[in-house]
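From the shared-data thread, chain only:
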Amino acid sequence: MPTYKSLISAVAVILFMTGCGAGPNALTNTQGPVGSGANSTIGDIYVQNVVIAQGESNIATVVATISNSSLKDDQLVSVSVENPAPKSVVFSPANEINIPARGLINLGINEQAAHVDLIEFTPRQSSFVKITFVFKNAGIVDQTVLVVPNTGIYEGANPVATAPASAAVEGREIIAGSLEGVSITVLNGTRRAGYARSVADTLQVQGMKIVNVADAPNKDTANTQIVYGVGMRAKAEAVAKLLSVGQIVEDPALVASNLVLTLGNDAPFSF
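Structure, as tokens:
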């Protein structure tokens, strides 16, 4: 009898992972287009069939199926693209894209889906580019993916940054490429354990050089602050836009880092 029960359990696990017998919402029945996309796994997150669908006016959208085998939700908090980098990346909805526990999302397949759109993105058609996904719980995963036209099976993959236009306003715009090579020290002015390291990992994905990650003297800092040296205001503003928070303060004597970020309790939890 124990052996029989073990066999039933094993079959049940296989059915869940393949989506068989799960009804109309089975994983295999709700996935997006299956083309020549890339696949990868990080922790409990499986990123499948990833391509970048290129539309008109140098705007593209990331197409992918992202599934989560964990018992807890996870969030996609950042995406960056290199070689070439777009001018900016727009998340719709804003802040983060939720990946439900024991579920999946289809990214970018139509206007109703969650979107990661690339603005002023000018790759060669049918070329490969590097894309990096940052998940709140699972971590960071890199892929090399194909740029395809948004025709055929990708015909519905139109960026929502222009249709509807309000999505670009409501979405979270990430400055991409402008932080490349900028050095930064990240200090945790909150009581959130590991928070500075999480933010530093996100900034590193954006191309920043992390000089140091440490605790700030004050663990109950109210407001996030970004200190910059001479000529670095635009970079400080880019970090503030990425975090959606931050008071900008100039310090002409700053030499150890290009920027010093002190995280306060007003900083978002999504990093």
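Residues 24-175 form a domain with the Immunoglobulin-like fold (CATH 2.60.40.1890).
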